[in-house]
Amino acid sequence: MKAQSTAEMVGSRPSSRISNASSTPETSQSPNPALELCGLSKSFTLGGGLFKRGRTLGAVNDVSLRIPRGQVMGLVGESGCGKSTLAKMLLGLTSPTEGDVLVDGEPLRGADQKALARHIQPIFQDPYSSLNPRKRIAQIVGLPLRVHGIGTAREQATRVAETLDVVGLPRRAAEQFPGQLSGGQRQRVAIARALIMRPDIVICDEPTSALDVSVQAQILNLLLDLKTEFGLTYLFISHDLAVVEHLVDRVAVMYLGRIVEEGSREQIFSAPRHPYTQALLDSALTPEPGLGVPDIGLGDAMPDPSNPPSGCAFHPRCPKAQAICQQTRPRLEEFRGGNARVACHLA
Ligand code: SF4
Q: Residue 187: which residues within 8 A CB-CB, separation 6 or more?
């Protein structure tokens, strides 16, 4: 595998196109959003056999979102609402049943996994399980460079050291093992591993929910600093609106696989229209937000996604439900001149 030169490697970022084995010049003025989800759906078949049809579970249903370059989109909803399945589709780890993901206008479907990894990188929830305990930090952080054949061994070591600096880890951490680091330091290692390829887009899947509250703020501030420094675009997935409040430009609220409200941070936090968003906000105002899945005060647990309620899927839990809500699913309608969307008959 041909190694890239130092000039290509240090401080450089890949082209913004994903189908780019032969690379085109980066177009920082590209009119396309960094990431666009177009009618994305993912369903699974449960059970079934030779003489029995299985049930269909619609994990993600007709999700459309646009994330402009350099912005942070928060994706919020309870555990099991489809957020992580959505993240897997964006990372190319599972294929959509319907719809497309566009990265800078280019469809992700069929894209080369290696090329994709240079544009989109994940940061997962649990730094304890996502780092190999038998590898030194330098090996963990530098692995993507080795996989992609970028730079010489010396250049790779230089990039690892620079990236550890960027995420606020001491250089001696390079020779340590994950078990020798604190939870916050391990998450910094996971962030360094995501950034070593200088991606355009980072999918942050509950990156602070396994950390102590005091460490959460440090990691969120670090993510904000890195966004500015590297011009990153984030999709920030969380069950907790309080966590995303200071980070996001826009918020999409997901319930049972569908977006039920989407808008700017100001609109979602000051004038939410969907009763589910309002319940999530109420739960975010509890004395210790961020501690596990919040009690959103809606009584019944989230319905079984393989047997969703008729009409508006939220109606069994909605304090404002009307007769129409049991029969007709509300469409995701635009308001505020197209700058926000909500799916509720009463909104
Ligand atoms: Fe509640 Fe009806 Fe609105 Fe659904 S459509 S959120 S059940 S008021």
A: 123, 127, 207, 208, 210, 211, 215, 219
CA–CA gap between residue 276 and residue 279 (Å, rounded): 5
Assigned domain for 321 exists: yes
Range of the domain at 320: 270-286+293-347
Cα-to-centroid distance, 291 and ligand 1 (Å)? 28
Q: Is residue 333 part of a domain?
A: yes
Q: Which atom of ligand 1 is nearest to the CA of 312?
A: 4
* Cβ contact 138:153 at 8 Å: no
Q: From the CA of 308, how far away is ligand 1's center (Å)?
A: 14
Query: How many domains does the chain fold into?
Result: 1
Take atom 5 of ligand 1 and give the residue whose Cα is closest: 344
Ramachandran angles phi, psi of 246, nearest 5°: -90, 0
Alpha carbons 226 and 319: distance in angstroms, whole number = 41
Q: What is the pLDDT along the chain (347 residues), one digit of tens a residue?
A: 333 433 344 344 444 455 443 333 344 456 789 999 999 999 998 876 767 777 888 899 999 999 999 999 999 998 889 998 999 999 988 999 999 999 999 998 888 878 888 899 999 887 677 789 999 999 999 999 999 899 999 999 999 999 999 999 998 999 999 999 999 999 999 999 999 999 999 999 999 888 888 899 999 999 999 999 999 999 999 988 888 888 999 999 999 999 999 999 999 999 999 999 999 998 765 545 444 444 566 766 778 888 899 999 999 999 999 999 999 999 999 998 889 999 999 98
β-pairing, 201-205 with 98-103?
A: unpaired
Q: H or E element: which one contains 255?
A: strand 250-255
Residue 263 within a domain: no
Pocket test for ligand 1, best of 255, 258, 260, 315 (most atoms within 8 A of CB): 315
Per the domain annotation, does 319 fall within a domain? yes
Ligand 1 neighbours, Cβ below 6 Å, are 274-275, 312, 314-315, 318, 320-322, 325, 330, 344-346
Q: Which atom of ligand 1 is found nearest the CA of 345?
A: 5
Ligand 1 atom 7, closest CA: 315
